[in-house]
Amino acid sequence: MHYIYLRLYFNMQAINELLDRVIFRMGDYSLKLLAIVNVLLIIFITLIILWFIKKMLFRRSEIDEHEKGNIQAIYQILRYIGWLIAFGLALETMGIKVTLLLAGSAALLVGIGLGLQQTFNDVISGVILLTERSIKIGDVLEIDDDVVKIQTIGIRTSKGLNTDNISIIIPNSLITTSKVINWSHQSDKTRFRIDVGVAYGSDVDKVIKILEESANEHPEVYERELAEGRIMGFGPSSIDFQLLFFSKNTFRIGSVKSDIRRIILRKFNENNIVISFPQLDVHLKSTSKSLP
Fold first, then answer.
1. Of 235, 245, 246, residue with least CA distance to 275
2. Residue 49 Cα distances to 82, 209, 266, angstroms
3. Which of 81, 145, 153, 211 lies at a CB distance of 3.0 to 4.6 Å from 229, suitable for a disulfide?
4. Poorest-confidence range of 42-46, 164-168, 202-206?
5. What is the DSSP letter of 222?
């Protein structure tokens, strides 16, 4: 028994000597193998904690798209906080005082800040998006006349998919500082409009009826009884109408509008209703000159 204890003692002493070995030295600073082991242990524990948090947040299988976006935003915030704490602990473990490091490199940080001003702006905007949650994963946005469906929200950039199935990387500052239309913010359905002008002399009641019937024939139109045709005004060459309808297919609404316009055009041709176009009448006036 004493032999076993002695053997364990010498083994532990050998391990302690190995961990106490200096692997890097610069002036008064020395880095020991024990510090590297502790840093690896901090990274491993952080990964385990974040994995456990993610499992707890996404433990339910029946999660809709909007709730999934909210949970993902919470997890992103916790993830960044976790890694920030782990980074600070790792520096302290390696004998680097974070407060002294920040104080000693203040001038350098100012220079870096000026050079990376736009990057910092994107990062702050990302924190605002993740905490404010005005924009969520799955939302359909209109940014600079481009319709984008948000797929991920990161700390610096967000990724979206446009109507051409092209992935777009969006700086977060563009979302927070520009005028952005969130088509799916208030409800899962949105009202859209189609403008059309017909020639003067057309039966306006029949035109309104055809517009509403055309919308109701499309399967993507939601709450068909709310489809409404209106007279919007009297143009120089046409009577201007507008068709209003609701749809849940916000992201592919361009295709829905195209289908409804085809139905309208077919019904107009069947009922001899002419879609107007700009016309200009030129009157020639002849004048006879008296000969001398």
1. 235
2. 9, 62, 62
3. 211
4. 164-168
5. E
- Please name the amino acid found at residue 10: F
Give one DSSP letter per residue of 121-167, joined into a string: HHHHHHHHHHHH-SS-TT-EEEETTEEEEEEEE-SSEEEEEETTS-E
Q: Is residue 281 part of a domain?
A: no
Cβ-Cβ contacts under 8 Å for 100 (sequence gap 6 or more): none
- Give the mean pLDDT of 261-274: 92
Tokens of 270: 């069947």
Q: Which residues of 195-215 are buried (b: 16+ CB within 10 A; e: fewer)?
A: ebbbeeebeeeebbebbbebb
* Two structure tokens written together for 98: 């974070």
Query: Distances in Å between the alpha carbon of 23 and those of 35, 87, 91, 155, 286?
Result: 10, 21, 16, 35, 105
CATH classification of the domain holding 175: 2.30.30.60
Contact 149, 138 (CB under 8 A): yes
Angle (CA) 239 189 223, round 5°: 65
Domain count, the chain: 3
Give the Cα separation of 254 and 50 in Å (integer): 41
Q: Report if residue 170 sits inside a domain.
A: yes
- Assess contact for 157 and 129: CB atoms under 8 A: no
* d(C-alpha 135, C-alpha 172), whole Å: 11
Give this prediction's pTM: 0.54
Domain that holds residue 161: 133-182
Distances, alpha carbon 99 to alpha carbons 92, 116, 188, in Å: 10, 22, 48
68 vs 150, more confident:
150
C-alpha–C-alpha distance, residues 75 and 54, integer Å: 7
| 63 vs 53: CA distance, rounded Å | 17
Give, as one character, the DSSP assignment of residue 225: G
